Description:
This protein has about 375 residues and is of the alpha/beta class. The chain has helices at about 75-85, 105-115, 115-120, 145-155, 180-190, 205-220, 235-240, 240-250, 285-305, 310-320, 330-335, 345-355; strands at about 40, 50, 55, 90-95, 130-135, 160-165, 195-200, 220-230, 250-255, 320-325. An 8-stranded parallel sheet has the order 3-4-5-6-7-8-9-10.
Amino acid sequence: MFATTTPTCVAVRAVPASRRTRRTAVRVSATATATVSDDRVKLGTSSISVSATGVGAWAWGDRSGYWTDDWKGQRVENLEAYKTLLRAGVDFIDTAEVYGFGKSEELLSDFSNDCANEFAAGALTKPLLATKFAPLPTRWTTEEVPKALRASLQRLGEKKIPLYMQHWPAFGFGADRNNDAFLEGLCLCFEQGLCDAVGVSNFNAERIKTAATKFKQRGVPFASNQVQYSLLYREPELDTGILEACFENGVTPVAYSPMAQGLLTGKYSVGTTVKGPRSGIFTETRLRDIAPLVQILKEVGDVHGKTPAQVAVNYCMAKNTVPIPGAKNKSQAESVVGCLGWRLSEGEILELEKVAAKAPKSPGAPFEKW
Length: 370
């Protein structure tokens, strides 16, 4: 049903702009890597090298109830996920001040303290943390950005962070005019020694270009633009030109929701009951419509000895993005680790895209079109 090759470990390499068009898929490079730990990506124009897939800590300390109604009860499982990831070298951990209303950041500090002896013994890789500034309606000035980062650093228990991002473009109530001030604020964060590089999230193509120009003029490393991207949501590649703008400006796309919030894991089928706010995603109609895609994910996975979830994440890696799937426990963390050290073949990518094109796409975040 699809072309196969012997599983091969490859490193991601940006494709020259001259070889890309707005509707042309990003291809996989053929550079081999020896081990999982060698499967790494340099973020944008920064010097930060991260594991080719990271992990999102949105669900850790989730006091909002979106992912769980018992975040305290899951603390031990989250800590096991943290250890499992760092033991294997998955060191890129993404969080934000709004995740759990600061609790996600606080847990990362707690976990670091809990693992102090293992870090000292070299049993765990030190995490490369990224967090994000929320352009809330109460924030209007440049100084709000480094102020917010200092508060995040206090919660994280850190003096400096590798990557700091603007979580979404400011909008509404005249706030759009503040985006220039927030870009200036990100520059200040770097210049004041609070972060090694800056990034953005949910930025459209024009905003990426504007930010790239600003940061280049100030000599500030521009690491990434974090956007939703998966087999069920390819608009940044096919429709909005976001990925193209990233590549042209030397910015690494970081893909959140690479498993479409669980739809592509193969764990859910018609008749599955999902509680909480996500229940609207897992309708019987939706699960029935994506069943052919889940089936091809299973078939491709069988070739590589991988799960549908790992194939879905590896797809994003093969398209030159750095995915950040969630991992709430040891088993899920081991699954993330298993995404490294190999890549889908071009034939497999094309077959997956062919089947995915027939499935209803996931809704995207509205900010990226503003």
